[in-house]
Amino acid sequence: MQTLEPSVTGGEHVTAPSMPATAHRLAERIATRDAVCTVVCQGRAGFPLAEQIAAAGYTVYGFDTASTAIERCTVASQQPTYQAVHSPVVLAGSDIAIVAAPTPTRRDSAGHCPDYSALINAVRTLVRHLPDDGRARLIIVESTVPPGTTRELIAPMVAARFELGETALIGYAPSRADAVTPRLPFAEVPALTSGLDETAAYLTWLFFRQVMVNPLPAPSVEAAEAARMLEQAYRFLNIAFAREFARYCARNGVDAAEVTALAATRPSGFHAFSAGETIHSTPLADDPYYLFEAMIAGGQAPPILAAAIAEHERRMAPASAETVPCAEAEPPAAAGPEPAAIEVEFASGAGR
User: Fold this and answer.
1) pLDDT one-digit tens code per residue, 276-315
2) What is the pLDDT of residue 282?
3) What's the pLDDT at 105?
4) What is the rounded CA–CA span in Å between residue 215 and residue 248?
5) Which residue among 46, 206, 261, 340 sits deepest, i.e. has the most Cβ atoms within 10 Å of its Cβ?
6) Does this model's pTM top 0.90?
7) Measured distance CA(23)–CA(60) in Å, rounded
8) Left (φ > 0), alpha (ψ -120 to 50) or beta: where does 291 sit?
9) How far, in Å, CA of 69 to CA of 102, rounded?
10) Residues 315 and 300 in one domain
11) What is the pLDDT of residue 163?
C-alpha cells in the first residue's frame, strides 16, 4: 500500500496501514483536500475547528439546529469555504463528519451528573443522514468523554447501520484548544488523534495532519480519551488548590499572585495556577464530573477529586441553585423525531 505523504510539516509521521480500497480512496481525498467535511454542533469547540479546517483548504459545513448559532457563525466566519447550515442534508455529501457536541452536566437533588444527551443526539443525526452507499466515511468524535465511551457508546450506534472498518471509520480527537484563555493559535495546539482500528487511526491522523501543526497519534482511543480527562482534571484540581492557597495568603497578609510568580521561577516541578482562572460555565467545570463518575462506576474511590468538586460546588452554589432532573443516556433509536438537543451556540458558552 502506498504511503500518502501529508502536506503539512510537523508532528510525528505515521505510515499508512493496509487498508480496504474504499478507505484508500478516502485517504487520497483527505490528502488532496478534496474531502468534504461537516462539523456537527457549532459551539465553542466546533466553530473554531470548522474555521481551521476551512482555512486548511477543505470545503466545510458547520451544522447546528440553533438558528442563532447559524447566524453568529455566518457573521463571524472568515473562510470562504465554510458554510453554516441548519439542515443535516449536507451530511449526505460529506466524507468526514466530526461530532463536537457538548458534554455538560445536569444537576439533580444529589448534585451534578454527566449528560450525554447532546452527544447521543448528534450521533443519531449523522447516522440517520450519512448515506450507506458503499463509500468509506470518517466519523471523528471530538467531545470530551471518559475512556471507553467512543468504543462502547458511539461505535454500536454507528454499527447499527454501517460496517465498521469498511464504510464507517471511527476516530477520536478531543478538543484541546482553550476557548476562554487561549495561549496558542488554534492550529498550533497539538491534536491528539486515535481510532478504533488501524485504518481509522491513520485516517484521523492524516486529516489532522492537514489541519493542525503537530497532530500526535495516541496508542488507542481509550488513551486519548483518558489524556483529555487527565488534562481537565489536572487543571481543575490545581485551580481549586490555588484558591485555597490564596485564602490562606490573604489571612496572613501575603499576596498569593506574587508568591505564585516566585514559585514559578523553579526550573521544573511547578506549574503556576491562578485562583482567578475561570471554571464556572466552561467545560472545565463539567469534565471532572465525568471522570469522577467513571471512577465510581469502576469501583474506585476518588477522594482528591471529590474534595475539589466539593470546593467548586461550594463556591458556585449561589449561581447554580436551580435543580434540573438528571437525564440518563438513552440507547440509540432506530427512528423518531429529529433531535433538538444539539442546539448550541458558540458565543453563549455552550459546546466543547
Assistant:
1) 765 555 567 788 888 998 999 899 999 999 999 888 888 7
2) 59
3) 83
4) 41
5) 46
6) no
7) 20
8) alpha
9) 14
10) yes
11) 96
CA distance linking residue 174 with residue 171, whole number of Å: 10
User: Is 13 part of any domain?
Assistant: no
Is residue 346 assigned to a domain? no
Residue 64 and residue 342 in contact, taking contact as beta carbons nearer than 8 Å: yes
- Collect the ranges in the chain with pLDDT lower than 50: 1-10, 319-352
pLDDT for the residue 261: 94
Contacts of 233 (CB under 8 A, 6+ apart): 287, 288, 291, 305
Q: What CATH number should be reported for the domain holding residue 257?
A: 1.10.1040
Q: Residues 239, 144: one domain?
A: no
Which grid cell sits at 130?
Answer: 450519512
Residue 52 lies in domain: 21-222
In 101-162 the beta strands, taken as DSSP E runs, fall at 105-108, 111-114, 137-141
Beta strands in the chain (DSSP E): 36-40, 59-63, 82-85, 96-99, 105-108, 111-114, 137-141, 168-172, 192-195, 216-217
Number of domains in the chain: 2
244 and 191 within one domain: no
Instruction: For residue 176, tell me if it sits in a domain.
Output: yes
211 and 294 within one domain: no
